[in-house]
Amino acid sequence: MFLLSFFEIPVGVRKRLDYYRSRFFWQNDENKKKYRLARWDMICRPKDQGGLGIENLEVKNKCLLSKWLYRISTETEGMWIQILRNKYLTSRTLAQATIRPNDSPFWKGLMRIKSNFFQMVKFVVGDGTLTRF
Predict the structure, then answer these.
(1) Domain limits for position 34
(2) How confident is the model at residue 131 (pLDDT cuts 50, 70, 90)?
(3) Given a cut of 90, is residue 12 above it in pLDDT?
(4) How far apart (Å, rounded) are the C-alpha atoms in residues 44 and 49?
(5) DSSP letter at 36?
(6) Where among 57, 79, 95 does a domain terminate?
(7) Radius of gyration of the chain from Cα atoms?
(8) Is the model's pLDDT at 30 over the cut of 70?
(9) Going by C-beta distance under 8 Å and a sequence separation of 6 or more, which residues neighbour residue 62?
(10) Which of 21, 30, 67, 75 is the most buried (most CB within 10 A)?
(11) What is the mean pLDDT of the chain?
(12) Residue 131 counted as domain residue
């Protein structure tokens, strides 16, 4: 779970993890399979929606990485925020930042989900003192 909050999981790794998690529900012996009574996406639904509450790793990974983007855009103090802003943003805003070849895997993962993050959040301008155009 810890690594889900720092790195974007490659699709192949996520599918392999889902394969082993689904085998828990669908395989009886090494060679004999159980009947599949529900699809994997149905099992991953929350309990109040009829699922078993098993977390979807793709959604969980994007949410945990989006939490970093939220903290970068809202917090102003702290050593980690100063390091990230000085290294990757310099005089740009988060919306203007792009992926460069020498960026860390952490930052590249954040930049890949940045468009999804901006579609889901709402920014309030307020009196405009902290807003940059």
Answers:
(1) 3-57
(2) low
(3) yes
(4) 10
(5) -
(6) 57
(7) 19
(8) no
(9) 113, 116
(10) 21
(11) 84
(12) no
